Amino acid sequence: MEEIENFTLTAKDGTSLYGREWLIENPKAAICLVHGLGEHIGRYEHVAEFFNSHQISFFAFDLRGHGRSEGKRGHTPSHYMLVDDVEELLMFARAEYNDVPLFLYGHSLGGNIATNYVLKKNINELTGAIISSPWLALALEPPAFQMKLAKFVSGFLPSLTQSNGLDVKHLTNDDAINQAYKKDPLVHDKISTKLFTECYREGLWALENSQKNKIPLLIFHGTEDRITSPDASKTFAENIGELATYHQWPGIKHEPHNDVKKEEVLETIFKWVKEQV
């Protein structure tokens, strides 16, 4: 029997974070989701329902500055706070299920945050992590002068936001999904100078520190992603070695879980999770 409830997390700095749990009786595992830039957990209803149908409970929360959570849209005071927020979600899930295998699932910006959590924090409670289209590097590298300007501005105007310039056609091959994203009132296109420069930096840090990983990872990317770099994901997986399983989806864009092969993508994730437990 499925039970869906909302909850609130309180971050270490007092920020209120909106969450939702999709619980089932006697789950085989539990997954904690970290979504991407500008979006919110409501876009993952079908993902949660899929895992529930396979005896897996699902937890998710809106990142600070996103969805129904508090915070200026598209801004965070520091990248480390985002990592700490993920730890709050994992602790919440672990309190619900003390002895069930626990997995972290991060997409895009969430993939950046999840990867940094795995490499930097105490990950003893995790059985593994699922890393989808992670922001380790961007598909198009920003010009050097643009990066220098962003770093300079973030030093004295860290919360200054501007449009992230996303073209929704790069999300998926399904135009209905792309247009729904565009019309979604909880979606925004904002990113602050602080969030951009710190996520850019921490993505590169993760690439350079892959040897710190100690748990099984499933890393996947669509070959036609024009937002984050498939090559960076492949390099990251190769550098990790045996603990990493890498899957590349031909013809798929930035959101594999929403694209035309979404059923196959979700089945692949489930199969991998099943192998870990």
> What would the principal axes of the Cα set say about the shape?
globular
Number of helices: 8
Helix content: 25-40%
* Secondary-structure content class: alpha/beta
The CATH homologous superfamily is called Alpha/Beta hydrolase fold, catalytic domain
Low-confidence stretches: none
For this structure, the CATH topology is Rossmann fold
Q: Tell me how many strands there are.
A: 10
Looking at the overall shape, the CATH architecture is 3-Layer(aba) Sandwich
Radius of gyration: 17 Å
Describe what is shown at a glance.
The protein is an alpha/beta fold and 277 residues long. The protein has helices at residues 45-53, 79-96, 109-120, 144-156, 175-183, 193-208, 230-240, 262-276; strands at 2-10, 16-24, 29-34, 56-61, 102-107, 128-132, 161-163, 190-192, 217-222, 244-249.
What does this structure look like?
With 277 residues, the protein is an alpha/beta fold. The protein has one domain: Alpha/Beta hydrolase fold, catalytic domain (Rossmann fold). The chain contains eight helices and ten strands. The strands form two sheets. The chain has an eight-stranded mixed sheet, with helices on both faces. Strands 7-8 form a two-stranded antiparallel ribbon. Strand 1 and strand 2 (16-24) form a beta hairpin. Helix 2 (79-96) packs across helix 3 and helix 3 packs across helix 6. It is globular and about 55 Å long.
Topology summary:
Elements: E1 2-10, E2 16-24, E3 29-34, H1 45-53, E4 56-61, H2 79-96, E5 102-107, H3 109-120, E6 128-132, H4 144-156, E7 161-163, H5 175-183, E8 190-192, H6 193-208, E9 217-222, H7 230-240, E10 244-249, H8 262-276
Parallel strand pairs: 3-4, 3-5, 5-6, 6-9, 9-10
Antiparallel strand pairs: 1-2, 2-4, 7-8
